[in-house]
Amino acid sequence: MTAVVPERVGAFRSGQRAIIPSLFGAGAWGLVSGVAMVKGGLTVPWAIMMSLLVYAGSAQLAALPLIVAGAPLWVIVATGLVTNLRFVIYSAALRPYFAEQPLRKRAALGFFMTDFTFALFMRSAQEGKLPEQHRDAWFAGVCTNNWLTWQVSALAGIVAASYVPTDWGLEFTGTLALVALVGPSLITRPALSGAVVAAVVALLAHEMPFKLGLFCGALAGIVAATLTDAWQERSPPATPASA
Amino acid sequence: MSDPVSGIALGVVIVGLALSTFVTRTSFLIAGARLRLSHRVEAALRYAPVCTLAAIIVPDVLLHGANATLDLSLLNPRLIGALATGLWLCWSRNIFGCLASGMAAYSLARLFL
């Protein structure tokens, strides 16, 4: 056991606080995912196990119809894998921030990362709001609250599936939380052009299987943002840490 | 149509899906020291959040129904909700207000439009 370092506890708490206002999004999304698991035909124990082990709403919802249809196992797992491909980009983006951390910590922080927690971390890092020496503790705080909220609400959705109204569009809260998170970043030209290109490509490619349209859109957007950046002839911002 | 996946096979699927989450999320964080991207690429990845979120949000707001048809009209409840959140965001960074205004506008639009 290492001694408790007050600054690390402070960083963890600060991360926990940073995500609190947005937890309605995680809660609504978890609840709806939980309901969908059960209404899709999974029994309660399997739905709970899936929620706890997989912890990736979009991959779970993509796999669900295939499970119900009795698709080959490798097809189901491959679908989950491709739906999760965007996380590879996130993982590459986070690498420099945690390069000096031990392997087990990098693995844990990676597993508990989600769309929202990743974007919140990156934005806070770019705005210089992270406790530099303890960003791992800050991110752990963010991810802990997100995980707890998502799992508790998913469990509620699983257990009380028949009582949760599915026609209220509650899951849209999750999308709105992403809107509120991304909005303030759109003030620079590279970010705005990246977002527009990403959105257009994702729309055009939405018929691609496994949410690949999302992945292609994200890649195209990153290229567009970088080109805009170069075109503006700004000095290339340094990557964080020792990289 | 075959029977739903169940029993041990379902357990295998869940473990496989869990691995797919783990492998993708930890990929570069685990292998980063050996499998390094160039500094240029890593610098470009600061735009990853904005671009992936745009690629998640915009289709979710604009594509409708089972056929996922494009709905750019201002009568689209999701578009109304997203715009309400965006407007709220322009004068306040209060996230709760953003979510509440967006959901209120979205729900009202679904009720009345």
Question: What's this model, at a glance?
Answer:
Chain A is mainly α and 243 residues long. Helix content of chain A is 70%, strand content 0%.
Count of discrete structural domains of chain A: 2
- Gyration radius of chain B (Cα, Å) is 21 Å
**Cα Rg of chain A:** 19 Å
Helix fraction of chain B by DSSP (H/I, runs of at least 4): 55-70%
Number of spatially distinct domains of chain B: 2
How many strands, which pairing sense, and closed or not: the largest β-sheet of chain B? 2 strands, antiparallel
Instruction: Note the overall shape of chain A.
Output: globular
**What's the β-strand tally of chain A?**
0
Secondary-structure content class of chain A: mainly alpha
Our estimate of the beta-strand percent of chain B is: under 5%
- Unreliable sequence segments of chain A: none
How are the strands ordered across the major sheet of chain B?
1-2
* Quaternary structure state of the chains depicted: heterodimer
List SSEs of chain B in N-to-C order: HHHEEHH
Number of helices of chain B: 5
Distance between the termini of chain B: 39 Å
Write the layout of secondary structure elements.
The complex is a heterodimer of chains A (243) and B (113).
Chain A: H1 6-19, H2 23-39, H3 44-54, H4 57-68, H5 73-83, H6 86-98, H7 103-111, H8 115-126, H9 135-159, H10 172-182, H11 189-204, H12 212-231
Chain B: H1 7-31, H2 39-44, H3 48-62, E1 63-64, E2 69-70, H4 77-91, H5 95-112
Antiparallel strand pairs in B: 1-2
Helix pairs in contact in B: 4-5
